[in-house]
Amino acid sequence: MEKDMTVGSPLKLLLSFTIPLFLGNLFQQIYSMVDTIVVGRFVGVDALAALGSVGGFAFMVVGFSIGLGNGFAVIVSQAFGAKDERLMKKSFAMSLILSLIIGALISIVFALFSKILLKLVNTPSNILDMANDYIFVIYIGLLTNIYYNLFASILRAVGDSKSPVLFLVISSILNVILDLALVLIIPLGCTGVALATVISQGISAIICYFYINKKLPILRPEKAHFKLDSHLIAKLLRIGLPGAIQFSVCAIGVIIVQIAINSFGSDIVAAYSVGNKIENIVTQFFPALGMAISTYAAQNLGAGKFDMIKKGFRSGFAIIVSWALISLLLAHTITKPLSYLFLDASTTDQSIIENAQLYMNTISVFFIPLGMIFLFRTGSQGLGSGAIPMISSITELVLRCIAAFTLPVFMGYRGVCLSSPVAWIGAAVILPFCYIARMRKIKKHLMLTP
Questions:
Q1: Percentage of the residues of the chain whose pLDDT score is greater than 90
Q2: Half-sphere exposure of 432 (CA within 13 A, CB side)
Q3: Spatial CB neighbours of 433, under 8 Å, sequence gap ≥ 6
Q4: How confident is the model at residue 359 (pLDDT cuts 50, 70, 90)?
Q5: I need a labelling partner for 253 at 20 to 30 A (CA). Which of 201, 220, 221, 427 fits?
Q6: Which range is least confidently modeled, 31-35, 104-108, 174-178?
Q7: Mean pLDDT score of the chain, rounded to an integer?
Q8: Alpha helix stretches (DSSP H) within 216-305
């Protein structure tokens, strides 16, 4: 069911849209934890480290899928705000074609070079083959991820944040069942976990597509809408590709940090993997709010409601600060208990648990700048800017690389933990100024438009 986000209280609109997304994201993280728990407990610490070592490479393609879907959906959302049904259908049709071409190309290239990439980042030899088994399958099945994220983004573009959550829950439950079947019953190890992910995402994508076709006629493209439109394709790529690339740029930074982590050995890699999973749980409100503000901003931009856009960003910042304080408390209280879920306490070195806690204690102090990145970066994408996300992503990448190569020399493992916060602060400092400049440009345009 579509939802008009151009009328009402900005705070209530954002919260009502964000909460279902947050619950869906949280559920997704929980089933992602099941992957890690199953591997850590039933395959071993080395397998757990293998999954952790490819986190950056997985994020590179998954983040690309999310960014591409969000970017394409911005045009749909703006058309929805402007009540332009033809443009909505045409944009959806072009998005389907572009996603197929881009996704297939990336899938083939990354699958062919997966093991070479892992060797380039000094993946420990004792986990190299398991890491490659996992990431190769993820790359081969990339199109399932791209299409699920596209369909979910399109639904959110018209104000429906609940249906994608339902489909995600279905996918998550199926993923857990397949995890257990392909690791415990059919002992495929890391390959089984990857297959479970790809299959469940594919089924979720199919369900999403049929739902859109049946329940949302305003989005249902017809044969005429699939006629190539070079102007619209250029517009979609101008917003979609920078959004996709900015996620991938961030992933490169994560991979750089992973190189530093790998140099400390597989036990530290395992600790970092556990800490990273817990980080993803306590910070899930931020990307959910980012998706909400993107849809909110795009709809109000399409409707020409400048004041509503400003009020929305102010409300979003208040939400960011509130959740940052809550997540800081969670990081210090739930990390150690959750860490024991991933590992067999009777056979695991206690230092792995302690280092996971150290990671969370270090980064949780910097959750406000992290939240600001999601608010202003994704929100700027909703305002039609591809440049702002790219600028902040490149800033984040440069700072993360510098920190990852220098801080560990002086501070050891704690220095690696600080690499991401340094990057968050740098990106968060410039984003508000970019947002202000974008808003001035929008205001000038609206004043000149009859």
A1: 30
A2: 12
A3: none
A4: very high
A5: 201
A6: 31-35
A7: 86
A8: 230-262, 266-282, 285-303
- The residue whose two tokens read 């429906």 is 160
Q: In angstroms, how far is CA 136 from the centroid of its own chain?
A: 20
283 vs 55: CA distance, rounded Å: 17
Quote the pLDDT of residue 447. 66
Sign of the torsion formed by the C-alpha atoms of 433, 80, 88 and 294: positive
Report, in angstroms and rounded to the nearest whole number, the Rg of the chain calculated over CA atoms.
21
Tokens 């392909």 sit at which residue?
Answer: 182
pLDDT at 419: 92
d(CA 67, CA 149): 9
Taking the C-alpha atoms of residue 269 and residue 29, their distance in angstroms, rounded to an integer, is 19
95, 173 contact by CB (below 8 A): no
Asked if 398 and 311 touch (Cβ cutoff 8 Å), the reply is: no
pLDDT in tens, 211-267: 998 888 888 888 888 998 899 999 888 888 877 877 777 778 778 888 888 888 878
Per the CB < 8 A criterion, the answer to whether 121 and 262 are in contact is yes
169 contacts 27 by C-beta, under 8 angstroms: yes
d(CA 66, CA 48): 25
Enumerate residues 6+ apart whose C-beta is below 8 A from 275.
335, 339, 355, 356, 357, 358, 359, 360
Q: Which residues contact 209 (CB under 8 A, 6 or more apart)?
A: 147, 151
| Domain ranges, ordered by start, for the chain | 10-448
448 has pLDDT over 60: no
Helices (H) and strands (E) in the chain, counts: 18, 0
Q: Are 275 and 355 in contact (CB under 8 A)?
A: yes
Q: Answer left, alpha or beta for residue 3, where phi above 0 means left and psi between -120 and 50 means alpha.
A: beta
- In terms of C-beta density within 10 A (0-12 exposed, 13-18 middle, 19 or more buried), how is residue 394 classed? middle
Ramachandran angles phi, psi of 161, nearest 5°: -100, -5
Calculate the dihedral angle through the C-alpha atoms of 253, 256, 262, 263, rounding to the nearest 10 degrees: -140
The verdict on pTM exceeding 0.85 is: no
